[in-house]
Structures are given as structure tokens and as C-alpha cells.
Amino acid sequence: MPTFIRYDALRFSEEEQLERANSYFDLCQKRRTVREFSDKPVSRKLLETLIRTAGTAPSGANKQPWRFVVITDAELKKEIRIAAEKEERESYEHRMPKQWLEDLAALGTDWHKEFLEIAPALIVVFSIEYEKGDGNLKKNYYVKESVGIAVGFLLAAIHQAGLVSLTHTPSPMNFLQKILQRPENERPFLLIPIGYPAENVQVPDIQRKTAEEILLWK
Description:
Blueprint: H1 14-29, H2 44-54, E1 66-71, H3 74-95, H4 98-105, H5 115-118, E2 121-128, E3 130-133, E4 136-139, H6 143-160, E5 164-165, H7 174-179, E6 186-195, H8 211-214
Antiparallel strand pairs: 1-2, 2-6, 3-4, 5-6
Helix pairs in contact: 2-6
């Protein structure tokens, strides 16, 4: 039989609920993807707390199919940059269709990824497709969905702590599995540089969709 424990729910008045919801929206509305980092270090304790927050995300059958590898070693970051830029250059020059390149042009990106060395830490998120134990393979469920939700928790926590990040997806990402010596059941999902923004950093002048564009009432 499953074991249950009491859930102590947060309780607020309707006024407090709306106030807290608006406050959190205002915080998230200020979050931006940043590609220019300071090399100012981030403490290990802070990084660990952010990862622990990501680990509170819901997951299919509570399998928690994620692994977060934090890299602060300069030589390892350089190795990752070299491998990522190799894939990115191939993508920009040969793999990406014209429309994709046109869409990226508004963001000012290219295959150069200096931030992979400058940012004080890189978080590589792996999805765990299955677990090994007792000589058997145990399947995980809704892996991509679960890991995606955990990443959302992580990005919000990073922003709330006054840091900046970037969701980087060099494709293919198999080199991360090899460089970081992860087992075959762990697949690279996302590469997240994290740190403080560079001085006077600028970001693209883009707008988010309005509530009317993303919300339907039925």
C-alpha cells in the first residue's frame, strides 16, 4: 500500500493571492536571456541551492529523471566551447534552413560562443531515459516533459537569485555526454551558462506575446 503524509497547503486571501501572483509575474517579466557574462564567480552553495530547487519539480511517476552537471573548471569549459562551436558552425553554415537563420538574425547570434568560457559556471542538464538497478532496466516516464519542467523551475530560481542564464542547445549535443563521461542512459538535454551579467550588457529589443495572444477562455 502507498504511504501518504499530510500536505500543509499555503493559504492566502484572494487579495494576497493576486498580490503574490502579480509580484511573481513582475519578477518573471524582467527575466531575459543574456549572452554576455561577467567572470565573477558564483558560490558553490548558491549553485547547489538552485539545483535543489530544480529538483522539486514534478515528474512522471515521481521518477525525477534528471541529472545536473555543474562545470566550473576552466579547461573543461574550454573543451566544451571548442566542441560546441564546431557543431554550431556546421549548423549555421550548412544545416539551418534560410528561415531559421532569418529568425535568429533578430537576436544577433552566430556560431561563436565565448560565453561558454567566460560564464563562471555551466550547468549541463541530462535526461535519464532509464535506470539501472538489480540487474534490470527500469523505464522512466514522460522524461522530456519532466526535465523541461525542472529546467523551468531552475531558470526562475536563477533569475530570482539575481543571476542570468542562457538556454544553449548546440545540435547535436552528444559531445557533452562524452566530455563529461556520462553513462549511456543519460542524454544531454540543455546547456545553461550561469553567472552575473557583463557590465552594460544589452539584450535584443523583443516583446513577449500578450495574454490575449496566448490565453483562451472556454
